[in-house]
Specification:
The protein is of the alpha+beta class. The protein has a six-stranded mixed β-barrel with strand order 3-4-9-6-8-7. The longest helix is centred in the middle third of the chain and has 41 residues. The two termini are 48 Å apart.
């Protein structure tokens, strides 16, 4: 121990005399270690730690597999049967989402309402921070209207007043009682802000909740009984599904329950980008280690005579290696401490920059806990060993007789050190290329999404959500009058070229329902599901959706006329191949007729996102003035679309005022440009790209610095040779070319290794990130050119310095 303390004191004195080296090494490693710690904090919170619920390993999602839809969430009747008929779960709960308008205290405000079954919060092991959970008698149709407030909404709208418990809040014109406030960090199934929680059972008698074949976003969660395995629960639920199929052959049909581990489901969408980020920061760390190892090798070469003298005085090889490893470990630990401070700042920045749509709130706050501290300590210790071992081994190889003959820094070991440093630079270039290729492919994937054909024109369009009060929807005539007044009021604004009032729109949300071809004898509830848009006259033209056949809705489609339907190209190609679908008929549930006539075909539009993922691949359009009373009575809001001559966002205040003139209590919400709404679907890939670009840029900078350092040292070692060349008449350009060729060889080798590694890396990443796409030759060429330019620039600077060598000085020294 005393020898180790002596080595530590000697290392401190040595580093104190080489402050520039110590500062450069510590800062370089600290940035890389800080980045690794910050990203690992997210990986640890999301992928490694359990969910912040009670016994999370026993929590499961219950989905349904339906032949016509694939994997969907259960309908409400099926959820009730799964809850009451199983023998494998302690409990089964459910949650869905809708919107309501809060009035009374403050301005009218549209809120996201999460509807929880009464047993869900106890099942998750979560209690309100203030007040209580719902009572069983509140979670039933026509039960007492109780709500829980999210902590953020309570703080913002009620100024965190604890006396709010027991007071009323008006939602959609009806009074509800506030019974509790949720904890600050709680979030479960939906990534939404401005939300409250209401009892799910109060909606059990609504139209959409009564149908067994209905498609709802009803996320159903179950807790396994102690000792019951997933396989046993699956067998139990399959038997339950078989029983429901026998009891309800038309409505349940071939649907079957499917169980999935809750943690695996919620982490699935995050695993790919987190692993990519972790690879990126590890590459940055390896490049930083190579840079510091280069510094250590240069420093070891300068201390060659010192090592020789110590060896001559009796120091063994292990003694010399230990001394140098203590120095490198000290640098690494200091870097780790500084890196940890940078990581604390980095975690705050990461948390602030995370898009809400990314959905990390369910995992709880990202923090630096004991696991992360141990990770940082291990990284720092391993870093010290990695960048210190090679220089230590090289410096400890002493030929005493040869070393005593040399007497200066031009020892024969210089070339050996240079070879080692060159190998490190090759590795840096290869790693930088791999990281840049990953960033380039991510950028290309994002560009492909941005260039996708939407099927409609979203430019110069403002959108707004307008709630419909019950008194304005008592009859179909009242609803039509309200829509007509709304259109006239907004259309009169300066700069407005077209106005459409719809129920549902692409990227905003829409109704889903079943349909069947006329000759299909199955019950309609067993048919495929389509997105359903309820539009007004001119609505399709307003969004400039391309008409491919037939006509759109016109003056002949009056409220009294039989309803008609317009279908999209995907539906037409699937069910009417080689035929003219115009004039054909479909069986549906919405028209309340035996069948509905197809009057037109329009192009398919992107509805859910810019990629190819779709819950329902078909689309149908109805005229909302022809909506049957049963469906109309469930309408609680409309989508207002306004096409403008100029910037649509500038009209938002006027649109809000125009609606307020109709009814000051209407809480118009979600006013935004259509392009911005579509752009929010790209928040997550943009965030990943920003992070990846930062790390790739850092890797490129470190690689360029490493190449510059190696070439500068090579020029310094060859000062005598280059001076003699110049003295014998060599042109400066020839000397520059000589040095640049040496650097170019290192760059070329690094590029070859990097391209091979990038090809392998992209295959792995593509399996986790489908949007990444296949390896793109253009990306590889662009990245290679960037590295060549940066690398040759880093080589050219020391090469130019070589031409300033004074031959006379070299000859006098000789």
């Amino acid at each position: 121990m005393s020898a180790l303390l002596r080595d530590l004191r000697f290392a401190l004195r040595t580093l104190g005399k080489s402050r520039t080296y110590a500062c450069v090494a510590i800062i370089t490693l600290a940035v890389a270690i800080g980045a690794n710690t910050a990203i690992f904090s997210a990986v640890n919170r999301v992928l490694l730690k359990p969910l912040p619920f009670a016994d999370p390993e026993r929590l499961l999602y219950i989905y349904e597999s339906r032949p016509e839809l694939g994997m969907v969430t259960p309908s409400y009747p099926n959820y009730i049967d799964y809850r009451d008929g199983n023998a494998s779960f302690d409990d089964v709960g459910a949650v869905t989402l809708s919107n309501m308008t809060a009035t009374g205290r403050g301005e009218p405000e549209r809120l996201n309402v999460e509807w929880y079954s009464q047993n869900l919060l106890p099942m998750l092991g979560v209690a309100p921070a203030l007040g209580r959970n719902f009572l069983p008698e509140e979670d039933v149709p026509n039960g007492k209207k109780a709500v829980l407030l999210s902590h953020g909404f309570w703080t913002r709208r009620f100024a965190a007043d604890p006396e709010v418990i027991g007071s009323p809040i008006t939602l959609d014109g009806r009074d509800w009682t506030i019974v509790g406030v949720m904890p600050p960090d709680f979030q479960f199934a939906f990534h939404v802000d401005k939300h409250i929680i209401a009892p799910l059972g109060t909606r059990a008698e609504e139209e959409g909740f009564r149908h067994r074949a209905a498609v709802l976003a009803l996320f159903t969660v179950a807790r396994l009984k102690d000792g019951v395995t997933l396989a046993q629960a699956t067998e139990d639920m399959n038997a339950l599904g078989d029983g429901l199929a026998r009891s309800f052959p038309a409505e349940y049909g071939q649907a079957r329950p499917v169980l999935a581990d809750l943690h695996a489901e919620v982490t699935q969408e995050h695993r790919g980008w987190l692993m990519m980020m972790m690879c990126a920061v590890v590459f940055v760390l390896l490049i930083a280690i190579a840079n510091v190892a280069n510094l250590m090798l240069e420093r070891a070469m300068r201390r060659q005579k010192e090592m020789s003298v110590r060896a001559a005085l009796g120091a063994g090889r292990w003694r010399l290696i230990r001394q140098l490893l203590v120095e490198s470990s000290l640098v690494a630990l200091l870097s780790g401490g500084l890196g940890l401070l940078l990581a604390l700042w980095g975690v705050d920045l990461l948390t602030a920059a995370l898009p809400q749509r990314l959905g990390l709130a369910i995992f709880g706050p990202i923090t630096i806990d004991r696991t992360v501290l141990i990770f940082t300590l291990l990284v720092a210790s391993g870093t010290g060993l990695l960048f210190g071992l090679v220089p230590a081994v090289y410096a400890s190889r002493q030929d005493l007789a040869q070393a005593m003959k040399e007497g200066d820094q031009r020892a024969t070991s210089g070339s050996r050190h240079l070879r080692a440093r060159s190998l490190l630079v090759v590795g840096e270039v290869a790693l930088a290329l791999m990281l840049l290729v990953a960033a380039g492919l991510t950028m290309r994937g994002l560009a492909r999404l941005q260039a996708v054909d939407l099927g409609f024109d979203s430019t110069h369009v403002l959108t707004a959500a307008v709630p419909v009060k019950p008194e304005r929807n008592a009859t179909a005539a009242q609803l039509r009058m309200f829509v007509s007044e709304l259109q006239r009021s907004v259309a009169a604004l300066p700069g407005v070229t077209a106005v459409s009032v719809q129920m549902g729109a692409p990227f905003i949300g829409a109704h889903h329902d079943n349909f069947l071809p006329l000759d299909d004898p199955r019950p309609i509830v067993s048919g495929p599901v389509s997105v359903v848009y309820f539009v007004d006259l001119g609505g399709i033209e307003m969004l400039r959706n391309r008409l491919l056949a037939g006509r759109t809705f016109g003056a002949e489609d009056t409220p009294e006329a039989p309803p008609k339907v317009i279908i999209d190209k995907v539906l037409a190609d699937k069910f009417f191949p080689g035929q003219d679908p115009v004039g054909q008929r479909l069986r549906d549930r919405l028209s309340e007729q035996p069948s509905v006539e197809i009057i037109g075909v329009v192009d398919h539009v992107k509805h859910y996102s810019l990629d190819d993922w779709e819950v329902a691949p078909y689309q149908m359009y109805y005229l909302h003035s022809q909506v049957p009373d049963k469906l109309r009575q469930g309408i609680s809001g409309l989508t207002l679309l306004v096409r403008t001559q100029g910037e649509p966002g500038e009209l938002a205040p006027q649109v809000r005022s125009a609606v307020a003139e109709l009814d000051p209590k209407l809480a118009v919400h979600s006013i935004d440009t259509y392009e911005k709404i579509i752009g929010t679907t790209l928040e997550s890939p943009r965030f990943v790209l920003r992070l990846l670009t930062i790390f790739a840029g850092l890797a490129l900078l470190l690689a360029a610095v490493g190449l510059y350092a190696v070439m500068s040292n090579a020029v310094a070692q060859r000062t005598h040779e280059l001076g003699l060349r110049l003295a014998l008449g060599a042109q400066p350009q020839a000397v520059v070319a000589l040095v640049v060729r040496q650097g170019a060889r290192l760059i070329a080798i690094g590029l070859v290794v990097g391209i091979a590694g990038a090809l392998a890396l992209t295959r792995v990443l593509a399996s986790m990130l489908p949007d990444l796409g296949d390896p793109d030759p253009l990306t590889f060429i662009a990245v290679t050119l960037i590295l060549v330019v940066v690398g040759l620039t880093a080589t050219y600077v020391p090469a130019r310095r070589a031409t300033r060598i004074d031959p006379m000085v070299v000859l006098r020294h000789e």
